[in-house]
Amino acid sequence: MQNIKQYVEQNKQRFLDELFDLLRFPSVSADPKYKPDVLETADYVAKKLSDAGADKVEVCQTAGYPIVYGEKIVDAAKPTVLVYGHYDVQPPDPLELWKTPPFEPTVRDGKIYARGACDDKGQFYMHVKAFELMMQNGGLPCNIKFMIEGEEEVGSSNLEIFVKENKQRLKADVVLISDTSMISMEHPSLETGLRGLSYLEVEVTGPNRDLHSGVYGGAVANPATILAKMIASLHDENNHITIPGFYDDVIDLTPDERNAINDAPYNEAEYMTDLGVDELWGEKGYTTFERTGTRPTLEVNGIWGGYIGEGAKTVLPSKASAKISMRLVPNQHSDKIRDLFTAHFEKIAPKSVKVKVTPHHGGEPVVTPTDSVAYQAAQKAITESFGKAPIPTRGGGSIPIVALFEAELGIKTVLMGFGLDSDALHSPNEKYDIYNYYKGIETIPLFHKYFAELSGS
Ligand code: BES
Ligand code: MN
Ligand code: MN
């Protein structure tokens, strides 16, 4: 441990500079205008993996953005850790809300502000630097494989083919991912589950053209009003989702499981202050952690229609649209939920409008084991580096490839994230604490050490 700390201390500034270089690439996968930048980012990641000592580094082409692969096999008898991360980021919009530009990383108050600082560049890069550290500092306790993709934020749609075509290359004993949150630095935690996702877009069309809202208003259904009503009806007065069959496959947690989740430290007042809200909202009968970690939800991610420019325009729009996504919990299936939503949304539409539902991406929920050697290794690593045992939590976010790795490769994942929910992922002023970055680089080698030890090699 002393050697680890020493190596981090001696290389602190370079570790930070390299992360800053990575953060300067605007690798926004959702917007084609950033394509050259996304491709350059993949090359940078590949170079950094090579520099750190990885063999067989390859920028693997897919139908979309490339997947960066690299490995170091030290001994076939040792266990193999497959590190997954993503070098793409969410769009930085709305730009005007950033205090400093999203792709010019800036330190304020010990925190790095930049798009991707936490999600996921700051987090996956810890693994690259921890790998360098192990190579320079006594060698690797386990074999290591890296798979860093560029389409996570847009649904990883080309990853499945890659995984299916590269089963042998990706063979490993565990997948290790840092792309989730901890409760806080005082309360280290390990996420033991992720929700699935079913994402759709709906369009409601009324008259064949935009109309004068005085001449026609009151006589013709306004698609914006109809859409608002339809969306509002998707939750009942207890904030349960009203889509028939939606909860059919949800498995209720046992009282013990619920207690464990509710044992995690949580300060409701702080939670509300951080978000600037006076009241929390959610499904009746469940606590905040249960709502975000163990219950399915439905959210409107965007809604538009009619005139949204400067000033006023008296128009009755011919169309209104929304992007809607549902987070799913274990035993729910994204395809089934997509179909249930579509059927219900079409059914509740009044005759005055036409509805078109277009599915986007989906992903399956997962629960990761807490009785595995790999989980125990993560527990030991965190306990040693934080001086406290990690609390198991269920994450509200989604990383669809976790279920895919399990289904295609039969490998389970350990979610060892070092971010915080308050790091403003996907929001303006995303940040990552420099402390967490170094702490992660210190903790990861311990995971490898204990995983090797506990695996009996
Ligand atoms: N890293 C996040 C997921 C996450 C964040 C999990 C915090 C747990 C805690 C990931 O990059 C992400 O944003 N995933 C998307 C899903 C994807 C299919 C677009 C999400 O959760 O919305
Ligand atoms: Mn992420
Ligand atoms: Mn993300």
From TrEMBL:
**Gene Ontology BP terms:** proteolysis
Record CDD domains: M20_dipept_like (cd05680)
Where would I find the Peptidase M20 dimerisation domain in this sequence?
193-351
InterPro entries per the UniProt record, alphabetical = Cyt/Met_Dipeptidase, Peptidase_M20, Peptidase_M20_dimer
Q: What SUPFAM superfamilies does the entry give?
A: Zn-dependent exopeptidases (SSF53187)
Coiled-coil ranges per the record? Answer: none
Which UniProt keywords are given for this protein, alphabetically ordered?
Hydrolase, Metal-binding, Protease
* Molecular function GO labels: metal ion binding; peptidase activity
Tell me which NCBIfam families the record gives: PRK07907.1, PRK08201.1, PRK09104.1
Name of the protein in its database record: Dipeptidase
In its UniProt entry, the species of origin is given as Mucilaginibacter ginsenosidivorans
